[in-house]
Design goal:
Layout lengths: L3 H23 L2 H6 L2 H17 L5 H13 L3 H7 L2 H4 L10 E3 L16 E8 L3 E7 L2 E9 L2 E11 L3 E12 L4 E4 L6 E6 L3 E10 L11 E3 L5 E2 L5 E4 L3 H8 L1
Antiparallel strand pairs: 1-2, 2-9, 3-8, 3-10, 4-7, 4-9, 5-6, 5-8, 6-12, 11-12
Helix pairs in contact: 3-4
Bound molecules: fe (ii) ion (FE2).
The site of fe (ii) ion has 4 residues, from strand 3.
Length: 248
């Protein structure tokens, strides 16, 4: 039997707890505390994607925002949400990278059409996401597992059978590090796995600018082409097969 004093004390405690929850709910603090940060992270990504497609953001502004967002990712929650452990059970190819999609339908508040494409790339040691550029696409990587050597180039000119490119990034990337590309900055990327297995998260936004008439898809090229003045390179265009044969 509890005493009358204990009963009143417990009742008061419950009332205070209930009142606190009510206060937090009123101020929307409770929801903010409980809601998984990764859901809000993807929501932010979908919002900036819409802003890019609505032309409220230039590609360079989007690229900066994407980098800021990528730097704030909760990597553990991201890997859990996209089920990296299950992806790791699939075999990796002997040339190039595997490409596995993931499901975002459980993310609270996310529109059915998020506006961006998404995938996980995986490579065995010494295999590559081969060198390629893009037209009318903004895209970004986050290293999920392993060590990678990443190279980027600005695509300065497009000719009939080659590109004029300028090396911009050439360094190792570890877990949690990121890189982004747009039509106007670091447009070409190439990532080679330095680990037995290595994985990269990718989101890409295609066709954001109706004024860019170049065909979408990957623009394969050989970045180890003829060296020109001022560090520029004449990089021959390549087929996917040739690029994978040389760099995959
Ligand atoms: Fe790419």
């Amino acid at each position: 039997m509890q005493s009358r004093r204990e009963f009143h004390s417990r009742l008061l405690g419950s009332a205070i707890t209930f009142g606190l929850i009510e206060l937090l709910q009123t101020r929307n603090l409770f929801a903010d505390t409980v809601k998984p940060t990764i859901d809000k992270w993807f929501l932010e990504l979908a919002t900036m994607t819409k802003d890019l497609k609505d032309r409220k953001l230039t590609d360079l502004e989007f690229q900066t925002k994407m980098e800021d967002l990528y730097k704030r990712v909760d990597l553990k929650s991201l890997c859990s949400l996209i089920k990296l452990d299950e992806v790791e059970k699939k075999p990796l190819p002997d040339s190039g990278a595997s490409n596995v999609g993931f499901d975002l339908s459980k993310v609270e508040g996310l529109p059915a059409n998020v506006g961006f494409g998404k995938q996980i790339f995986g490579c065995k040691k010494d295999k590559s996401i081969v060198p390629h550029g893009h037209a009318n696409m903004c895209t970004g990587f986050i290293i999920l597992k392993g060590e990678w050597h990443g190279k980027h180039y600005d695509r300065l000119e497009t000719k009939a059978d080659h590109y004029i490119i300028k090396p911009t990034i050439d360094r190792e990337f570890g877990v949690g590090e990121l890189s982004t590309i747009s039509d106007h900055k670091d447009n070409i990327h190439w990532f080679k796995s330095l680990s037995d297995t290595a994985y990269i998260f990718n989101v890409h936004v295609i066709g954001y600018d109706p004024k860019i008439k170049d065909a979408g898809g990957r623009l394969y090229l050989d970045p180890e082409g003829e060296k020109l003045a001022d560090g520029l390179v004449k990089a021959p265009k390549m087929s996917s097969a040739d690029c994978h044969r040389k760099y995959g």
